[in-house]
Amino acid sequence: MLEAEVIIVGAGPAGSACAWKLKQNGIQAVLLDKKTFPRRKLCAGWITPGVLKNLEVKSGEYPHGILTFKRIFFHVRGRKLRVPTCQYSIRRIEFDHWLLKKASVPLQRHAVQKVRTENGYYLIDNLYRSKYLVGAGGTYCPVYRSFFKGVNSRSQQRLIVTIEEEFKYDYHDANCHLWFFENNLPGYAWYVPKADGYLNVGIGGKFLALKNRGQTIGRHWDSFIAKLEKLSLVKGHTYRPRGHNYYLSQSAPAGRLNNAYIIGDAAGLATLDLGEGIGPAIESGILAANSISTGRRFAKRSVTRYSLPHILWAGIQMRIIGKQRLI
What confidence score (pLDDT) does residue 325 get? Predict the structure, then answer.
């Protein structure tokens, strides 16, 4: 049986950030993940300057392609708004693998099935044992299922369903575009160019609102790709999209129970306005690591809940300073 002081289930941004900060604090963790890295991950791949700051990323440290947006175009009920800012896009297949290597902790490939407690320790499938357990396994995290589901129920009002695709494309518009409430969609659609000739397009909406209207996210997807064609943003592409679900941030009573924690999408932390998940995942991973290291309270409520104020503030900073941070 492998034993560690901390075992983290899930090696995405939340889990890897937690492991990285624990190691900085002098605590060695072990990561478990059912996938082999690098692995493909559905995500628009939008990161903020706050992500770079929280991860203490130095200039030139990130070895992969990254695109800087000095503006974002918001399309709201037919109106086009140009918002100055400083934001970035990355490919998750690259970013997640880089962050895992930055954490520099052991990774075990294992699909967790059963988690239980015994004599003050956590036992995972009778193969792993730890004093602390961190659930970073996404929406269907087994740690959430085993310990938090009964006390930390997720509101279906905050469940988001998405369809998206990332593909090689010779795009002519290198700006980020976001469309809100198109065709009365209870959500938004995105067009996010990436470095090295990749493009991510997708659409997300509130599951219950769609259900109550007798609509499907698939119907809205069909309308969206037709719009991309009409606008000549994407022409002649044969789509092979995939879907996934996640939860927006909600007031939940527990992010920690005894020595078990949930972070990232396992805790349902995507921002309420734009569904941004990477930033809150990394913030929560660092908070959990600091709580384990110091014994202080896990202040999950301090995790960012809205993206738009940070987008606007980044634009103000760029105008004041006269430049944006590059990595």
Answer: 52
Please answer whether residues 178 and 190 qualify as being in contact, where contact means their C-beta atoms are separated by less than 8 angstroms. Answer: yes
CB 188 within 8 A of CB 179: yes
Instruction: Express each pLDDT in 98-108 by its tens digit.
Output: 999 999 999 99
Domains and CATH numbers, the chain: 2-156+246-321 (3.50.50.60)
Block residue for tokens 């004093």: 131
Q: Which two tokens stand for residue 270?
A: 């995507």
Residue 92 CA to its chain's centroid (Å): 9
pLDDT per residue as tens digits for the range 188-230:
999 999 999 999 999 999 999 999 999 999 999 999 999 999 9
* Cα separation, 5 vs 199, whole angstroms: 41
pLDDT, tens only, 117-133: 999 999 999 999 999 99
Q: CB-hemisphere CA count at 13 Å for 185?
A: 29
**Radius of gyration, CA atoms only, the chain:** 20
Per DSSP, what are the bridge partners of residue 73? 82, 177
Per-residue model confidence (pLDDT) at position 254: 80
Q: What is the pTM of this model?
A: 0.95
Q: What is the three-class DSSP state of 42?
A: coil
Q: Please spell the DSSP secondary structure of 280-323, one letter per residue.
A: HHHHHHHHHHHHHHH-----GGGS---SHHHHHHHHHHHHHHSS
Q: Which two tokens stand for residue 23?
A: 């190691």
Rounded distance between C-alpha atoms, residue 12 and residue 130, angstroms = 20
CB 88 within 8 A of CB 70: no
Q: How many helices (H) and strands (E) does the chain have?
A: 8, 16
Residue 166 near residue 272, CB atoms below 8 Å: no
Tell the burial category of 254 from Cβ atoms under 10 Å away from its Cβ (0-12, 13-18, 19+): middle
- The answer to whether 146 and 274 are in contact (CB under 8 A) is no
Distance of CA 72 to the CA centre of its chain: 19
